[in-house]
Amino acid sequence: MADPNRTVVVTDGSNDASTVSGAATGVQSSPKGEKGAGTDPSKMDQQTLAAVLQFLKNNKLKDAEAALRREAKLPDGNGDSSGSSRVATSGEVSSVLSAYESEGDLARYCEYYNSLSSFIESSLDAHKHELGCLLYPVFIHMYLQLVYNRHEKEAHKFFNRFSVEQEDWHQEDLRTLSTVKTREQMEGNDLMDTFRSSKFVLRMSRDSYQSLRRYLKQNEHRELLSILQDHLFIDVFDGVPRNREQVQATSGAMMGEARRDANKVKVLYGLPKEPDINVPLDDDDEGAEGEDKPKKKKQKKDLLLNKNKKADPNAPPPSRIPLPELKDADKLEKVLSWKEGLKRVPLGRENLPSICFYTLANAYQNVSAVGVSEDSSLLAAGFEDSNVRVWSLSPQRLRTMRNASELDQLDKEADDIVERMMDEKTAADSWLLHGHTGPVYATSFSPDREQLLTSSEDGTVRLWSLHTYSNLVVYKGHNYPVWDVQFSPTGYYFVSGGHDRVARLWGTDQFQPIRMFVGHYSDVTCIQYHPNSNYVATGSSDRTVRLWDVLNGNCVRVMTGHKAAVHTLAWSPDGRYLASAGVDKNVLLWDIAYGRLLAEMKGHTDPIYSLCFSREGSILASGGIDNTVKIWDVQKVFEEIAGSDDLTSLDRASLVEVGSLLLGSFQTKATPVLKLHFSHRNLLLGCGRYQHS
Amino acid sequence: MSDRVLPDVTAESIKVIAESAGIGQLPDEAAAALAEDATYRLKQITQEAVKFMHHGKRRKLSTADFDNALKLKNVEPLYGFHAEEHIPFRFASGGGRELHFYEEKEVELGDIINAPLPRIPLDVNLKAHWLAIEGVQPSIPENPPPVPKEDQHAADRPPGVTAKPSGKDGTKPAGKPGKAEVKGLPSEVAGVKLKPVLTHELSVEQQLYYREITEACVGSCESRRAEALQSLATDPGLHQMIPRFSTFVCEGVRVNVVQSNLALLIYLMRMVKALMDNTTLHLEKYLHEVIPAVATCILSKQLCQRPDVDNHWALRDFAARLMGNMCRNFSSNINNIQSRMTKTYTKILHDEQSHLATRYGALAGLAEMGHDVVKSLLIPKLKEEGEKVKMLMEGPVHNSVDKTAAEHIRALLLKHCAPVLAKIRPGPDNQEQYKTDFGHLGPLLCAHVVKARQQQQQQQLQATTTTAAAASVVQRPTLQIPQVRVLA
């Protein structure tokens, strides 16, 4: 903790220009010039002098010190008249400087804050809401400076007076902040580290910004200025100031909004065509079935592929990320899923889905994770007693592989070799997997259903074989609880994220991560692989959703708007839209193309833990621990934006104006909805553990 | 934030803790510093623990979350603390201080070791059901009742309308699927609430169910009847069918009273009871059909073919109890069921010509209305009724039917009046006194009252012992022996 602090502090005093970004220079330069004409220049000079003296003293430059003292007509030694008792006691330059930095009038912080807030109150309605965003970061940093300078009492008073005025969604962080009452406690506190080392980002229209500058010019609040310069990043845009709803829609993240340039990179969100399946696939089919059916299907398949070929200029080139080559089994799998897809029930506001709900009864320990395989045939539940249990949802029971000697005797050329490898005697409805030493927080099936990934509180990710029901690999690296893990849609790669704020990309055959996605200010709580395997979306308890490029590990989208930790994400099947939800009980819908918020869906009364788009993307299902499955009409939103594809509104993050999107709400008796999954035929599966009242 | 009590560890607490750890004289400053630090660390860890709660997808923080948070901070967790769902904190105050504490009993290990092993808990299993079928939630026991009882109660909603299952908050989707509207569901289009045309249509399944249930209820197979009644008493989705069932009961009673078919009347009353037992149903709207039926079963002159042999008294008792329950549950200022029924009963009692069986029913009905009614209406009548019983029992005309009726009336009066008298009449019980007060029934009544008093005393004793037993159950050692789980 100490280091970033001090470096920040040092640069504050000595080298302003280098730390201040372009947008803020304007603020800084003008008052700087007038500094000499400030209210109490003599005091300021004295403080500067004291600091310089201290610096000389510390560096044993005695002659220079003496000379300076003579020149400044200051008495010798410790009898500093600068009014700062701290100068003498502290041995470090940094602390002197930081004392200097905020020595001005710590007691007047309340006044400063009041003045700022009344300025904002009295400013034009158009600017009011944008400027209002200033209050929270200013409040935080004033408080931290008070604490840092050991004015605990004032800090406490300041906090009690103004913390109630902050927006609701900040209260969680404020609670954390309120525990910090001394400088010692600031060290090692994650939230403090974040606040001191990163800048709070605000976006403001030029008009609002001008009015802020006028205010700062008129009122010589040096403290306020230094806070604005050092800890805030004001991103100024040209255009109409945003209104209250617009400001609120994107605020809420721990470190303010996303910078405008953070979402500029083009995201190749399209789905790649699947060209090479065509020929071998049909062979496969004929081999497998060899009757009239395949011919019909071939025609249809061709049609489908043709359609695919035309589509998506936004798709990444297939070779962008090296993907595992498709095995015959994978191709067969694709055909089967496509065939299933033909029987899909179209869903929409007229046709609501059927929901089949799986209830876990008699669970001795709480269920903390549920995963369903892509084809809806397997279900894995992670328990808080470290166990993982796998169930079959299809009539096919779960079998293990025969032992080695038996396998040896098999005819390896046989068509149904996979089938023969399995030992019919071991068929069971469910298998229990032991290995983790802490609650299991996520489970993810590989696309071929041969492997299962689980992540746990014990800091590991484990890969299990679903042929032998044993642990294959333990991936260590997170050291802290791993909140989520997910296989890529193509298999082989997977991403994990946890308390260490890092999301890691792994290959199943490597015990070290291939990419690290670093940037979240708090725990990475959930992960969703983009359908084209080129991107990964992560949600975090810093209340942002980020999109990472797997190719280079860059963060290509930052999306703010959640007011509490994000716990679940879902991609629309076309890969353009992302839905996110979490503790703040709202479902947000994002357009990845521009990183903008499209819609907000309110209605849940408790945290949401699962989201799923229907297979054709027209409906979104959400479920949480309020024991309710809700169905949302996202098609309406998509139609709305297709109608007015207004790229200029990009910066303004305006919500698409549509009425309520809620189509249906289905309550269970006493079962929280931990997982939702649409089958290929658009049957919605839900799962949770029955809770006795 | 400022007006909330600050959740701080106080210096005094630290001193107490220090003392219990063997450090006698902790300086004030040290205690204060420690207290502040302890507060800070506790809050830190609690905040981390909340993260674990969220990831555990729970609403309640558990001790395991706290352990995990400690682990996260590289602190050794507190081993051996096993949290149950409910941690019974006890409250104590004294010396101007209020305190909540967790009472930990010393545990005799021997007892635990020698105790028989608890039963192996059931294995986790997975059960599937339909939460919704094409957007409509089926009324099956796995789903919550389609219309919460409060909504059924709501006056503006006409009975028997299928309402869409709506969230707790009552938010309804703006536009309903067109298909649903055809069926006559309440629809809200653009915020305007349209009252739909009522169509009392039962689905095919419901019609089948209705047939099955009614057949089973009045059929001859006792086990099927039990199942049917069970279904009526527990199924959550029946509100749509209550009108049918109440009509069935009403018509059934009408026909069977004429035919004096005692068995069927009993079956019908049991159906009423089952419907009343169903916690998801609200019968209030159908009382106009049900109450006359039940009242008939209480008061009708003739309920069976052979009044001298058949035990129609039991039916009257049963129906009277049902009526009593109904009065308790549904009587309100508007419908005044209780006072109306009481009037009916007393009118019969005043009528000297009324049939004995009817009189019995009226007396039973009053007796089931509760202690107050017994006290104010039945006890004053004891003398008069006693005379009547005496006349019938000892009178010149020996009619066996009348005699049994008199016996039943006597037994009824004794049974119901004695406990009330035991409560309101101060002892000691004097035979003569009773005789003068209550006439013919006096001596018998006296004996019953004495018995009732003894019983009440015993019950009190038992109550104290059972609460003690219950308390001891609560205070039983809560150490749990971990279940050994065997991999299948």
Assess the beta-strand content of chain B as a share of residues. 5-15%
Secondary structure tally, helices of chain A: 23
Biggest sheet record of chain B: 2 strands, antiparallel
For the report, how would you describe the main beta sheet of chain A?
A: 4 strands, antiparallel
Shape of chain A: elongated
Structural class of chain A: alpha+beta
Order of strands in the sheet with most strands of chain B: 1-2
Low-confidence segments of chain A, given as residue ranges, are 1-41, 77-101, 279-308, 648-653
CA radius of gyration of chain A: 30 Å
Helix content of chain A: 25-40%
Number of strands of chain A: 29
Task: Spell out the helices and strands of chain B N to C.
Answer: HHHEEHEHHEEHHHHHHHHHHHHH
Protein name (chain B): Transcription initiation factor TFIID subunit 6
Family (chain B): Belongs to the TAF6 family.
Organism (chain B): Branchiostoma lanceolatum
Pfam family, one (chain B): TAF6_C
Question: What are the main properties of this structure?
Answer:
heterodimer; A: 693 residues; alpha+beta; 4-stranded antiparallel β-sheet; 34% helix; B: 488 residues; mainly alpha; two-stranded antiparallel ribbon; two-stranded antiparallel sheet; 19 helices; extended
